[in-house]
Write the structure tokens for this entry.
Amino acid sequence: MSIWRSVAGVLSPLTSDTYMNTADSIFVIIVTILTLIGFCLNFLLLYLIIWKSPRSLTPYRIFLANTTITQLLFAVFAVTSQPRVLSKHQYTIVIYLGPVQYFGSWFSYMSYVGILHLSLNSFISLMLSMVYRYYSIRFHKFTASTSIILCVLGYSIPFLIYASCSNVLVDQSVAVNNEILEGSVRNLENYNVVLSTNITNQYPLIILVLAVTIGLIPIYFVMYWCRHQIHKTLKQTRSVHSPSTRDNARRLVHALTIQSIIPLVSVFPASSFWCLAQLGIVEPTAYSYFIIPCLSLGCIADPLVTIRCVLPYRKWVLKMCHRTTSDTTSSNQEKTTIFLKH
């Protein structure tokens, strides 16, 4: 057993008896580390949203919680499924390396679709947050109940797509999958769960893939239109809004703008490679290790940007870091004093 396989077995002990080559082991190590970091950061952010948010942040923190819970679930789905996603002609083939493989083909497939629908919901949540900032600045009325209704309506779209994928036909035959991949994946028969889908006959899956890729275009359009209108409104209503209100609005819009850029380095590269593989331009076996780590970057970057740009959260984190540093320094000084006395 290689050292990479041993490390993968330690980080993901539930899959210790799963077949993995060296590349699979490195993939599992990277995905596990990224998703655990993302889970911890989003769990910290959720704590801050619930317990450290001022009352003035109440409507907006609902949108923050929506995005954060989505990213938490994404980390859970990704670390439990750890799918290698390949595409060949009109087929999508997924090799599952996570513990979900022990729950059968249906749960395995739905975990992969779950990752896609959570990615879509995170983009919708960012868009709704930007829409909230615009309407709260422009019309000054945006209640907590309205925020909850918007989040539920926003999630209803990816959820309906996700639910409609539950009856998608998949093929687990080793012979069929080997024929589709034309033998490009060695030892395919040694993997526990390998599922293929002919996407040309599966309209829910086509809709989901298009929503995660092409669907981002209208989402970006709405976000940047709202961003433009927010800055325009702030310039026109200097006498209406206080300096602190304008600064907070700009800071939050800046955070959302940064978060909207994250898909450019996470989602778009993954979807581009998927499309290129469909066209036969890119070899699918190489990029199959690329998709989930790319998507996991957003799970880490989103909470970092939010904590950095939302002032109460940043102050609390800095305060805790300063307290930890002070305690460590005091402890070292006490030890030094005791040592000198002796």
